[in-house]
């Protein structure tokens, strides 16, 4: 998303409890191996809960790939700060959570080929005087972000210290409650939030442009190769675009 690594010590504390009940080594399931996908399911349309099940773009893509590679898929929901760590420590096999490719992350894990181009955008009240990214440089403007995201990193590095929330929904709620003047988050989730709250809008100029990819442990080169080959096939046969169109071009309810 998108998102940048938080402090390792904090992530370890958050992730350890989840590993006891969620992630773990691959287990046999009717003769098939189980591939564990780490995600943070408050990021529609890439991952979100519907009828008690995690759905979305990332889930559909990874489901298609794991099926072709001969795996059953198990989706493990956790805080975003723990998603990449779960792959680094081999507790989960792949991280799929609208993860932005960055040079810092490349040092920690391997990325598949990118599967979509996204952006960080700015949400403001419809009557706001904030009209462009440069306006956010005013330190009197309180900017809300999701903690650990690339939006968080960009705002803290290039603007000023943001207000951090566990997910983008909470950041938007803070905007609606006048606890901040702007929210910076990923473009597609931003569209979902704005569709539900007509009193806010997305500024027409994006803050950044970025690519999403899936993250794997650096030792899992065979699995990385398999995923990349399947992504190429999906792009060539139209299945990847069909999944993107299913969610990104859908009319909001």
Based on helices, strands and strand pairing, what is the structural class? alpha/beta
Q: Distance between termini?
A: 23 Å
CATH architecture field of the largest domain:
3-Layer(aba) Sandwich
What's the number of structural domains?
A: 2
CATH superfamily of the largest domain: Periplasmic binding protein-like II
Give me the number of helical elements: 9
User: What is the global morphology?
Assistant: elongated
Q: What are the secondary-structure elements, in order, as H or E?
A: HEEEEEHEHEHEEEHEHEHEEEHH
Average pLDDT for all residues: 88
**CATH classification class of the largest domain:** Alpha Beta
Q: Supply Rg.
A: 18 Å
Return residue spans where pLDDT drops below 50 for at least 5 consecutive residues: 3-24
Q: Give the strand tally.
A: 15
Estimate the helix proportion, in percent: 25-40%
For the biggest sheet, the summary is: 6 strands, mixed
